[in-house]
Amino acid sequence: MRSISLFSALAAASAVQAGTVQTRQTKITPVTAKGNAFYVGDQRFYVRGVDYQPGGSSANLDPLADADICRPDIEKFKKLGINVIRVYSTDNSKDHSTCMNLLADAGIYVVLDANNPLYSINREKPAPSYNAEYLQSVFATIDEFGKYDNTMAFFSGNEVIHDLVETTRAARFVKAVTRDMRQYIRTRFNRPILVGYSAADVQENRMQTAAYFNCGTEDERSDFFAFNDYSWCTSDFITSGWDKKVQNFTDYGLPIFLSEYGCIQNKRDFGEIAALMSPNMTSVYSGGLMYEYTYEENKFGIVTIADKAQKGPRTELDEFDAFAKAMSNFPAPTGSGGASATTHSVPCPTKDKHWDVDSTLLPAMPEGAKKYLTDGAGKGPGLNGPGSQNSGPPEVEDAAPGSGAVAGGGNKQNAATKGRMDNAPLLVSGAVLMVTLLGAIAL
What we know:
EC 2.4.1.-, signal, GH, 16 strands, 13 helices, lipoprotein, GPI-anchor
């Protein structure tokens, strides 16, 4: 079990000598992880928020780089009573101080996708897309947002692994990115920032994916696991199958939350919030993010914006009031919520007909990216750079387990995951993984 001390004078002095980013531009207590839950200080923290991408993915727009976009939405966020937003696209070449400080003033944390369409892991050809140019963009995003204390976490990938078994081969590369991001943060920042994966809710590989991101050496494992769930369609805890998912994830060993949730088959009443805040779930889940804030082509949103530049008036739909009412009626519970105080790893999944990964070894960090650990990433390429998906070689070398460890532990060993235990990678059969370890077969 690790020390719960956030910093020591000696660690801080060493960080400065190593060129660690020291700038802190928002005044809000950072979110940390301990056991299988999140905390702000000593208080349990639940994710109670929305997915936020005005204009949708096709707009290729950064809503946090323009105060004319974020400011009116933050006023709406206050009305909703949320505490977290997820932003999918951000421009790492721009300044975000105004929006990030406005969010901090409102008590709102931010979870960010570190990738964008031009700089991301290609699930069909993952090896060439894992390269120094790609990591420079990822690290530049961390540099830009890591200086704000209300940056809660980064996603190393979103639904890269999907329903086709071939896509599971990309898991090694996404996990390598997770390792690299965590190493970069521990090396260059004086506070913990969480890193995890946002998974698709695919029945055939949901539990293998979860296990994979929490197996192996400490440096390779995620700080949390999140997935996108659309199974609650104005339903209930049992009919939706959420009871089985809670059972499956019991004793998983990391914090879990829903990075997207929603269903529009019926009129939305947001009963998910009641379930997420109930004793049925709080010992295993730490909340979730409602998909989504703005009404786009997929028709999930609760606010419309007529202006294509996303700067016009915001019109609240009926679902806005319904969501706000659910948030008010079902507040975050007090106390521990039944959370476990100790984090632990799980066995790695073995190859089967749904999981085509037969090695626990991860790709080695590209040689050209290692300089960023000491020098910093520099200015990012933004959302319109030349791209990186074909910049790497067709094959990569594997790294030894523990390659992402930081000498002296970095900030991570002191504070990011209190109570985190190191465990060597283990292998078990798919049957043991799905039944014995996690309690029940996934839906």
